[in-house]
Specification:
CATH topology of the largest domain: Aminopeptidase
CATH class of the largest domain: Alpha Beta
Number of domains: 2
Strand content: 25-35%
Shape: globular
Length: about 280
């Protein structure tokens, strides 16, 4: 019988092993902790752990956004655990009056896929992980760069909300979430670029062992179609090469065709794909 309880930091090693056993790509301990204990998940309060006879068999976190809910991350060792977690997430979404809920699923996660389809979820898009080996590029960027952790968090929040408006699974962020992003970002490859005193673009890159992920890249409308976004991608690849990091990755929604085209033009190619399932609640 499945029992659900609150998350404890002591659960993290077992949850990391579960993620490695059930999903792709394998996460680091830092990535798992960042996904479960971030401000969007109320520092772990919006997380439940599934156990059977005292053994951890699943975990589900969720993000409450305006009018919708995102179930992530969700890992389940078997169908019974998946059913319990999906049922719990749907019930929470209904209770708060969300119009829809989304949960993603990688290719190996058969139990979770069966549970989602049985509950009426349907695929609405994919998340695609693109990757490239780091290499020197030496791009030229005419704007002034400032360190991302040196700017007011409200600048990061506004840049995110403006440049990601209308992008799937990228709801507006709070000031606390902006501060969290600034704290976690790899300083060397991240930054805010200024046109005079006005923020024009930003990059959030995360370093994780021998990989750097372009977590967010946003360019304001007045600077689009001028080669800036491409130069910013090239800069992350160049900085990674200088630091002797092996690979650069980016996770992009299949509906974000502009971002996919940008990263593919920079040489990144598809490495992993996961389906995003959605259930309409009203």
């Amino acid at each position: 019988m499945i029992e659900l309880r609150a998350l404890s930091t002591a659960d993290l090693p077992a949850l990391l092993a579960l993620q490695h056993a059930t999903s792709t790509p394998p996460w680091s301990a830092a990535t798992l902790e960042g996904q479960l204990l971030d401000p969007a998940r109320e520092h772990g309060k919006n997380v439940v752990v599934a156990t059977r006879d005292g053994e951890i068999v699943g975990v589900a976190g969720w993000v409450d956004a305006e009018g919708e809910q995102f179930g992530a991350p969700v890992f389940a060792g078997d169908r019974e655990a998946a059913d319990a977690l999906v049922t719990t997430l749907v019930a929470h979404a209904r209770e708060r009056g969300a119009a829809r809920i989304r949960i993603s699923c990688t290719t190996p996660e058969q139990a979770k896929r069966e549970s989602l389809e049985s509950a009426g979820f349907r695929v609405v898009l994919d998340f695609i992980t693109l990757a490239i080996a780091a290499e020197p590029r030496n791009p030229r960027i005419e704007l002034a760069r400032v360190a991302i952790d040196s700017v007011d968090p409200d600048v990061v929040r506004k840049l995110h909300d403006e440049t990601f408006a209308g992008v799937d699974n990228a709801p507006p962020i709070s000031l606390e979430q902006a501060r969290h992003v600034q704290h976690r970002a790899w300083p060397e490859a991240s930054g805010v670029w200024l046109d005079g005193e006005e923020p024009a673009a930003f990059v959030v890159a995360m370093r994780d062992g021998d990989c750097v992920e372009i977590d967010e890249i946003g360019v304001r409308s007045s600077w689009r179609r001028r080669g800036l976004a491409r130069a910013l991608v090239d800069r992350v690849i160049d900085i990674a090469a200088t630091a002797r990091i092996g690979e650069v990755r980016a996770l992009i929604a299949s509906t974000n065709t502009a971002s996919l085209a940008l990263h593919e033009a920079a040489g990144l190619r598809e490495r992993y794909r996961r389906a995003v399932y959605q259930l309409e609640l009203r």
